[in-house]
Amino acid sequence: MRTIKSFLAALFIMAAFSITAQSMQYEKQVESLLEQMTLEEKIGQMNQYNGFWNVTGPAPENGTAAKKYEHLRNGWVGSMLNVRGVENVRAVQKIAVEETRLGIPLIIGFDVIHGYKTQSPIPLAEAASWDLEAIHKSAAMAAKEAAAAGINWTFAPMVDISRDARWGRVMEGAGEDTYLGCEVAAARVRGFQGEDLASPHTIAACAKHYAAYGFAEAGRDYNTVDIGRSTLHNVVLPPFKAAKEAGVKTFMNAFNELNGIPATGNAYLLRDILKGDWGFEGFVVSDWGSINEMIAHGHARDTSHAAELAVEAGSDMDMESYAYVEELASLVREGVIDEILIDDAAARVLHVKYELGLFDDPYRYCDAAREKEVTGSKEIMDACLDMAKKSIVLLKNERGLLPLKKEGQKIALIGTLAADNNSPLGSWRLAADDNTAVSVLEAMKVYAGNEIRYASGAELAIGNTAFITEMEINTTDKTGFAEAVATAKEADVVVMVLGEHGFQSGEGRSRTNISLPGVQQELLETVYAANPNVVLVLNNGRPLALPWAAENIPAIVEAWQLGTQSGHAIAQVLYGDYNPSGKLPVSFPRSLGQVPIYYNHKSTGRPVSPGDKLVFWSHYIDEENSPLFPFGYGLSYTTFEYSNLQLSKNKFTGDDAIKASITLKNTGTLKGKEVVQLYLHDRFASVTRPVKELKGFQLVALEAGESTTVSFIIDKKLLQFYTAKGEWAAEPGMFGIMIGSSSEEGLMGEFELVGTKH
Ligand code: BGC
């Protein structure tokens, strides 16, 4: 106990509050408020209740509405989630402000995961744009719309790295790569929070799920995580650190245990790393019910023990466990928990409320006129469309099938997803109205004068509910095949929109099969046999294994779930009004058996040697090691040529830097954009390093025929990793370098870091 006390005292002095004048002012206000608060009121700031509308987790038995209202009036609630809309937020805020003893405003949290009411593409899709400016703007627009509806805190960005396509929450993150994950995390945090958190158009962000949730065993949601030190520090934690450095105000912990200790009660993660080493000053919210779930994990004996473990570990706010509100006061009075822990947690929450301006005006997010004006505004819709176009990845384009001609082509549009107005909204679209996405069928008619005939082919979803079951989605009904075949036979080109329903990914939606759900593969093959001029447009929230399509279908467009403007974005790409430039943020496997598959794997002692006939290598006897489509891969309607890799020097000491450049030429006939990617390989290290790692990228626009020089600066910071000694350092030695168009293709060279310590 004494250790925690002295640790916290130091924490207060050294890191608790930033040194800006404004922040010092808030600190004083927080201190004086704390002095007036009873123990129960302080604990109240650590208590978060779900509202009365959306449910995003199992409802606790003791969570009746009557009880919630009673606790609100007592000043025992610091925050609510899933209360939205100015009218509803005003109603609960009014109780907190006008009916409690101290009138402390609530902080209102909501899962603004990819837009509020207007949906932008799912986060995985946004990451495929590699366009940080657009991602920043998209988050800013989502914040603006949410803030206008009374929300002042989003539970985003999710910065979990995942290498497992079975995990349904792959759709919520930026994919498999740590470097890209860091960049996207920072862009999204800055987008949500803006320059001024007190502005009525910005909201506090939340880096989640801390930590390692994306490494759930077998891709099964909420499952055990057991990973080593190197993976934790080199792969999992950096995006969280990047979010912290971008100024994120809150963190959410995770449902999983990490190496035997639930993340919610994990002092190493929360106290030692986050609040200690990184000096995080904001607050940590538990995940939904995760404090109580420590009992099911087999870590806490009962709710009281769970509350004790969580608060000691550094979880500041309890989301829907009722553990803090019911147990903490007696734990303090019995001397089990030091009140300084309560003071620290409550202070952190109050500080963020001051920063949001809630004490100046608790109703600053409750302006009904603004809500009306901002919701679904042209500015927000335009940003969503822009983001959606940028998120599309062209995977294959043979025989010049794409772009489609605008006149004189008879087009068959096949697949129930082509006409779906709901599925493109994706998972985590709680505030969106059902059926508000523009479908491909609707949009295809807007951009050209072609004759378009639609046939569903096979139903994918029966009903439209978020809790739809896999069996309902995967209907086996093939009665629509005949119409689809007849329609395809009469067409010049067949556009097939196939993939997953929007509710087949997301929380609790792990899958053991990552091929096309239901009878869609059979539909694809049947239609292809009738007319091979097929353009396959994929809708999905995770990588899919589509070896047959990759081999046979001439054109494939990865269109994820692109949100409200989905159909427009897809139609503009299909007709060539927009030249795609997205690149995959995840590897697409050839088969499920390869999962987890990721480009930045280790070499092993027996790496595959091409052409070797023996079996004693790290490989499969029935499948290649390589992915179907690699990380970083994506085509354009134009072509790019990489040449002339130049390094300013081949050796450097770490006090200086190397400039690496290439010439990029647009060798096609259209203007286009290319994501130029830098990969490095630390050949020998105290802890083995991946065969390559993304360490930089640039989005370059070039006119047809134009060329330019693209340069990257390589300094020692870029070479650092968590070494065998447990420090961030660059170790001297040889490094491989590759600059290219994907993780599998590029110009290669090498350089040496000389000296001893970096
Ligand atoms: C999810 C979180 C989410 C929370 C609140 C949980 O089930 O894991 O990501 O923010 O619910 O809706």
Helices and strands in order, then pairings?
Layout: H1 2-14, H2 21-36, H3 39-45, E1 47-50, H4 65-74, E2 79-81, H5 86-99, E3 107-110, H6 123-127, H7 132-148, E4 153-154, H8 178-193, E5 206-210, H9 229-236, H10 238-245, E6 250-253, E7 257-258, E8 261-262, H11 267-277, E9 283-285, H12 293-297, H13 303-313, E10 318-319, H14 323-333, H15 339-355, H16 368-374, H17 378-391, E11 393-397, E12 410-414, H18 440-447, E13 451-455, H19 470-473, H20 481-489, E14 493-499, H21 520-530, E15 534-539, H22 547-552, E16 555-558, H23 566-574, E17 640-647, E18 651-652, E19 658-666, E20 672-682, E21 693-702, E22 707-714, H24 716-719, E23 721-722, E24 728-729, E25 733-742, E26 745-753
Parallel strand pairs: 1-2, 1-10, 2-3, 3-4, 5-6, 6-9, 12-13, 12-14, 14-15, 15-16, 18-26
Antiparallel strand pairs: 7-8, 11-16, 17-19, 19-22, 20-21, 20-25, 23-24, 25-26
The structure holds beta-D-glucopyranose.
Explain how this protein is built.
- The protein has 758 residues and is α/β, with parallel strands linked by helices.
- The protein folds into three domains: 4-371, TIM Barrel; 392-594, Glycoside hydrolase family 3 C-terminal domain (Rossmann fold, 3-Layer(aba) Sandwich); 640-754, Sandwich (Immunoglobulin-like).
- It has 24 helices and 26 strands.
- The strands form seven sheets. It has a six-stranded mixed beta sheet with strand order 11-16-15-14-12-13, with helices on both faces. Strands 4-3-2-1-10 form a five-stranded parallel beta sheet. It has a five-stranded mixed beta sheet with strand order 18-26-25-20-21.
- Strand 1 (47-50), helix 4 and strand 2 form a beta-alpha-beta unit.
- Mean pLDDT is 94; it is low at 5-18.
- The chain binds beta-D-glucopyranose (BGC).
- Residues 56-57, 81, 111, 155, 208, 287-288, 507 line the site of beta-D-glucopyranose.
